């Protein structure tokens, strides 16, 4: 079986980019959303991405982005994928993929089985579906809040698209999450932080070490 893919999301310093790479992450994520404590501008993303080798995937996380915003991010040149974390429709996802020429991930906000079922509308439009915990109505952020959902909802998932698991993961629960869900790509943000937006090198190392046991 292929090695598990790990995305460390919400990086904002060269030191923590380096830690993610050394620890064995396959993907690094940069949040471009002004309300987030992890927000980084397009030029910062370019600078941070330069601290990771070419084989590491560099993913920008955006929420209901305009084409202008995406043009600026993609134009900076460092990205290998876009992660859409808002209420983008399947048509909008497909249009972004066609226009910007990068693989597009669609985050699916999950609380119930109906949310998992809703993901099938994105098959063919998105390159990867990222199942993440639904945040409460009125929450400040649509992701990165350390919330988890019932991982058994993913057991035996037979969706014809690559997918990943996100939401509320940590070095303490990730092995259980992988065993229950069968995920082959996992994504983490606040579980490797010492405070909102402040990534911890030690927690990144511990998380990747825990995953390597799977
Ligand atoms: O992390 C953010 O601040 C954020 C803001 C707006 C949209 C998405 C955001 N994060 C998305 C991610 O990819 C997170 O890694 C994912 O939601 C899991 O977060 P966590 O539960 O904190 O591990």
Automatic annotation (TrEMBL):
GO terms for biological process: L-tryptophan biosynthetic process. It comes from the Bacteria. Keywords: Amino-acid biosynthesis, Aromatic amino acid biosynthesis, Isomerase, Tryptophan biosynthesis. SUPFAM superfamilies: Ribulose-phoshate binding barrel. It catalyses: N-(5-phospho-beta-D-ribosyl)anthranilate = 1-(2-carboxyphenylamino)-1-deoxy-D-ribulose 5-phosphate. Its EC number is 5.3.1.24. Belongs to the TrpF family. This is N-(5'-phosphoribosyl)anthranilate isomerase.
């Amino acid at each position: 079986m292929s090695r598990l893919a790990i995305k460390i999301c919400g990086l904002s310093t060269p030191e923590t980019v380096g830690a993610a790479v050394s620890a064995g992450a396959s993907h690094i994520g940069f949040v471009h959303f002004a309300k987030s404590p992890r927000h980084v501008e397009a030029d910062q993303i370019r600078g941070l991405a330069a601290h990771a080798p070419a084989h590491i995937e560099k993913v920008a996380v955006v929420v209901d982005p305009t084409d202008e915003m995406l043009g600026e991010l993609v134009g900076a040149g460092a990205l290998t994928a876009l992660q859409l974390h808002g209420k983008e429709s399947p048509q909008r996802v497909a249009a972004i993929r066609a226009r910007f020429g990068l693989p597009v991930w669609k985050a699916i906000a999950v609380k119930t089985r109906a949310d998992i079922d809703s993901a099938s509308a994105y098959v063919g439009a998105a390159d990867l579906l990222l199942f993440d915990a639904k945040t409460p109505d009125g929450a400040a952020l649509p992701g990165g809040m350390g919330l988890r959902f019932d991982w058994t909802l993913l057991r035996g998932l037979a969706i014809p698209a690559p997918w990943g698991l996100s939401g509320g993961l940590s070095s303490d629960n990730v092995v259980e999450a992988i065993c229950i869900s069968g995920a082959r790509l996992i994504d983490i943000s606040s579980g490797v932080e010492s405070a909102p937006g402040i990534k911890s090198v030690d927690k990144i190392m511990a998380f990747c070490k825990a995953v390597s046991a799977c």
